[in-house]
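This section describes the prediction task in plain terms. A model, or a person checking by hand, is given the sequence of a single protein chain and must write out its three-dimensional structure as a string of tokens. No templates, partner chains or ligands are provided. The sample shown here is typical of the held-out split.
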Amino acid sequence: MDFNLSEEHLMIREAARDFANNELLPGVIERDTNQTFPTEQVKKMGELGFLGMMVDPKYGGGGMDTLSYVIAMEELSKIDASASVIVSVNNSLVCWGLETYGSEEQKQKYLTKLATGESIGAFCLSEPEAGSDATSQRTTAVDKGDHYLLNGTKNWITNGGSADYYLVIAQTDRDKGHRGINAFIVEKSWDGFEVGPKEDKLGIRGSDTHTLNFNDVKVPKENRIGEDGFGFKFAMKTLSGGRIGIAAQALGIAAGAYDLAREYSKIRKAFGTEICNHQAIAFKLADMHVNIEAARHLVMKAAWDKDQGANYDMSGAMAKLQASKVAMETTVEAVQIHGGNGYVKEYHVERLMRDAKITQIYEGTSEIQKIVISRGLLRD
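The expected answer:
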């Protein structure tokens, strides 16, 4: 057991930290206020390799391990969770799914562009009546011989308006239940594909979240991922890894809020001394630090499991469950430590508090994580 990061991991952390402070921090409040997608920042993240970190270099990726990815995610999320969720979706849900289960033709056509940031991807599973219950897909893909005809609606789609390629989960044979579900690669330019209005969200307002409509979209047979009926397994396997990325995002949000609160407590005075000297504040900081460190160990353990080829369903679920809880609790306390200043935008902590909430919801709610964990515990 070795708790030291390698030189490579330390370099990745430093690169991500520098990028976050130099490129993401300027304008982050304005992007949040105006719901502005960080187009230029995403382009730069692609150039620096953040959008395809774990992809094999032969497809244009960085060939890094999952630990490298979560280290980068934490640093980016300390400053701008809207930007980091774009990194998470492109890496965990889109690139990983395509590289692991896609055909060589699909990888050459799509993955090479996604890994370099030339194109952005989106993962389309949630529907108005199929969020946590992913088996209840209403979107249909009717087999027409050489193509499928795709119809339906997807909502809460991150990168919904900015993506070029979409991995869409749809029901092909309802009688087969989850074995009748397939996954498809859909291009934005295809006829019948429509991007709905942008959602006006509580947090991660810089990311673009949209409802998508599919009206008789013709999807070539070669754009189905895996064998017929593989879609549900594809979605669940992909989400297991995605949860590690979101756990790292939650960790970063918590750590960012803690850093701001700690520094503020050193300069804000009350009753003749800096507030960090008051036990009420000092103990808050102690609790925050302990909880963040515990969450960090869970996140890194899940990443390690994935890199070792071990089953990471439970460890990923535990990491996301705990890190998202810590993110919510820590950001609330960070606002409290800032007092009235914590309630205004210029001090950043109110934004981090709003951003934290989504980590308990997307890529599997906290309740779903408990289902995954409890089933794992009771399986043997």
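For orientation: The mean pLDDT is 97.
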